[in-house]
């Protein structure tokens, strides 16, 4: 084409039309050779370690209860319905029901999927979650996301000028006036924390999940957080909330 057209004709868009088609012809479609794993990469020395029972259970529960899957949500609803039927006589409060559901769902889910697997087809992702993760995990000191976010553990940036260990999330949280309360209040609450550990949970090479372990500040005003005269939020890390660790 360079022999047929003047140099001014070849803008960047003209080059893309020609070169991208040729590139796809020789190297095959882009999704077979993209660099997404590099753009979203874990950094720092890899520390392979074995999870203790408590941490393993906390991590697995976190994955199950934060999994954005309609299928898993249906299993949760089914489990809650079974708990209600099993406790018809004692009439559990909503707080007690949530507590039993949280404590027993992972075991019930595993058993339920195993029973249904012999009778019908189960989604691969659901089977992977039901099998539960390996006790062998990996620990990292840094995590970069291709959207521009950089995360560092508190220990790794102890002597750095910049700070990337601070985290903030807005979570829909249900609160109870008491354990006998049947009408929990739901609200979006902003939580502030500091990143202590970056862990890769491995579901036997079929699925890997990155988890952040953080110190979370008590969000009660006057204790863990407060606003200054200019409206900025000040965080006090000497007042932490109990995260169940």
UniProtKB/TrEMBL annotation:
Signal among keywords: yes
Domain DUF4216: 199-242
Transmembrane segments: none
Signal peptide span: 1-27
Keywords: Signal
UniProt keyword Amino-acid biosynthesis present: no
Domain DUF4218 intervals: 1-43
Protein name: Uncharacterized protein isoform X2
Name of the gene encoding the protein in the UniProt record: LOC107822180
């Amino acid at each position: 084409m360079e022999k047929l057209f003047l140099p001014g004709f070849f803008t960047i868009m003209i080059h893309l039309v020609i070169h991208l088609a040729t590139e796809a012809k020789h190297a095959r479609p882009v999704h077979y050779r993209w660099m997404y794993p590099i753009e979203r990469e874990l950094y720092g020395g890899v520390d392979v370690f074995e999870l203790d029972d408590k941490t393993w259970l906390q991590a697995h529960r976190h994955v199950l209860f934060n999994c954005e899957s309609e299928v898993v949500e249906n299993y949760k609803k089914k489990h809650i319905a079974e708990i209600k039927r099993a406790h018809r006589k004692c009439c559990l409060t909503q707080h007690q029901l949530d507590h039993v559901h949280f404590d027993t769902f992972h075991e019930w889910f595993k058993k339920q999927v195993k029973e249904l697997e012999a009778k019908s087809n189960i989604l691969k992702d659901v089977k992977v979650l039901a099998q539960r993760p390996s006790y062998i995990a990996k620990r990292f000191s840094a995590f970069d996301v291709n959207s521009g976010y950089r995360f560092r553990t508190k220990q790794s940036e102890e002597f750095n000028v910049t700070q990337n260990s601070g985290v903030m999330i807005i979570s829909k949280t249900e609160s109870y006036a008491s354990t006998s309360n049947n009408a929990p209040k739901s609200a979006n609450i902003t939580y502030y924390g500091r990143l202590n550990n970056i862990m890769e949970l491995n579901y036997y090479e079929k699925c890997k999940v990155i988890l952040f372990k953080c110190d979370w500040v008590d969000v009660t005003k006057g204790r863990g957080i407060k606003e200054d005269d200019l409206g900025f939020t000040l965080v006090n890390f000497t007042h932490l909330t109990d995260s169940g660790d």
